[in-house]
Amino acid sequence: MDPQRYRGKAIVVTGGTRGIGLETALTFARFGASAYVTCFMGSADERAVAARFESIGAVPPVIVRCNAGDPEETRALIERIGRDFERIEAWIANVSVAQLVKGFDAYRRRSLLQSIEMSAWPMIDALQATRAVLGAYPRYVVGLSSVGAERYVHNYDFMAASKSVMEILCKYATCRLAGEDVRINIVRAGIVDSSSLRLTFGEAFVDWAREFGITDQFLSPAEVAETIYGLCSGFMDAVRGEVIRVDKGAAFFDPFMRKYSDMQRAF
Amino acid sequence: MYTKADITGIVLDFVRRTIPDLKYAEIDTSAPLHEIGATSIDMLEVVSAAMRKLNVDVPRDALGGLGNVDDLVELLLRIVAPREAGAA
């Protein structure tokens, strides 16, 4: 694998100042990339982020306050990149913002549509805007999905629906753009041990998961990041329009049945 | 120097811009957000816009405790006040 595969090339990671996003940007940076990382709230510790890049001898990141769900801000970001680069090599649509719902009575049409706008549409928006501004699609586009798209996750109804929309659009966009120099894929990550996990589900969730013996299947942000890089490494260019499940085999694992097996062994 | 009234005005302006149904409505700043028709995504957008206007950063962790518009005003005031005291 070429250790300088991304030297002189621009990549974008939305939500790239923490968690999976930051690890992804760092992984590309290790291969020489000039990383543009966005943060919506602008509350990232920019010095800490820059220090992570410096510690690996990477090109310093450009940290941009940008709401990935806002087409104008996305376009402005691309125009800014266009001043220094002719093309964006990889665009990682990592940001997800969705309404968490506590029950069926909390279902609201507007909340669902907002969730799709903020979590699924930005990937499409990035494709269209990049083509419009720079004249070429990013060579690689990876959207981040989650296990919620295939099985029940606590309060994740609208997040999961948004991820499903993103997964389907990935496939259709791949068909629509057949013949173009662009590879669009989705990484559907299992449970990732990050600050977002605790923020979304609370600290108690991890204790609960430990009781069921599933924390071994938690992913680190770096493990997801390396998969994303793999899709953009040049070695997987024939993979297009796919949803890649990254979950350490958790999808096949049934904690309830595992408990039963343990109980049978005990007697 | 921003007063509480200034920040309340800024927040209400962004709430009205973000939630079309509230454009011309009287807003009860002490009412739960869902009662005035605001979603959590609306509030993220309001917070983001207010941050830009006031040139401050709001820790993401602080957003979970927002129950109404007053809570957001108080949060912003707590962040803005020390900065302005330092500048005075």
Produce the secondary structure layout:
The complex is a heterodimer of chains A (267) and B (88).
Chain A lengths: L9 E4 L5 H12 L3 E6 L6 H10 L6 E4 L5 H12 L5 E6 L15 H11 L1 H14 L5 E7 L10 H20 L6 E7 L5 H7 L1 H9 L9 H11 L11 E4 L8 H12 L1
Parallel strand pairs in A: 1-2, 1-4, 2-3, 4-5, 5-6, 6-7
Helix pairs in contact in A: 1-9, 3-5, 4-6, 7-8
Chain B lengths: L3 H15 L21 H15 L14 H19 L1
Helix pairs in contact in B: 1-2, 1-3
What would your notes on this structure say?
Chain A has 267 residues and is of the alpha/beta class. Chain A has one domain (10-251): Rossmann fold, CATH 3.40.50.720. Chain A has ten helices and seven strands. Chain A is globular. Chain A starts with 9 loop residues before the first strand and ends with a helix. Chain B has one domain (4-87): ACP-like (Non-ribosomal Peptide Synthetase Peptidyl Carrier Protein, Chain A, Orthogonal Bundle). Chain B contains three helices and no strands. The longest helix of chain B has 19 residues, at 69-87. Chain B is globular and about 40 Å long. The N and C termini of chain B lie close together (9 Å). The chains are: A alpha/beta (267), B mainly alpha (88). The interface between A and B is medium-sized, with 17 and 16 residues.
TL;DR?
The complex is a heterodimer of chains A (267) and B (88). Chain A is α/β, with parallel strands linked by helices. Chain A has ten helices and seven strands.
Question: Helix tally of chain A?
Answer: 10
Using the CA coordinates, give the radius of gyration of chain B: 13 Å
The main β sheet of chain B shows up as: none
Determine the strand fraction of chain B and express it as a percent band.
Answer: under 5%
The appropriate CATH architecture of chain B is Orthogonal Bundle
Report the span from N to C terminus of chain A. 51 Å
Uncertain segments of chain A: none
Number of self-contained structural domains of chain A: 1
Oligomer category? heterodimer
Percent helix range of chain A: 40-55%
- Strand-residue fraction of chain A? 5-15%
Please count the beta strands of chain A (DSSP E, at least 2 residues each).
7
Main sheet specs of chain A:
7 strands, parallel
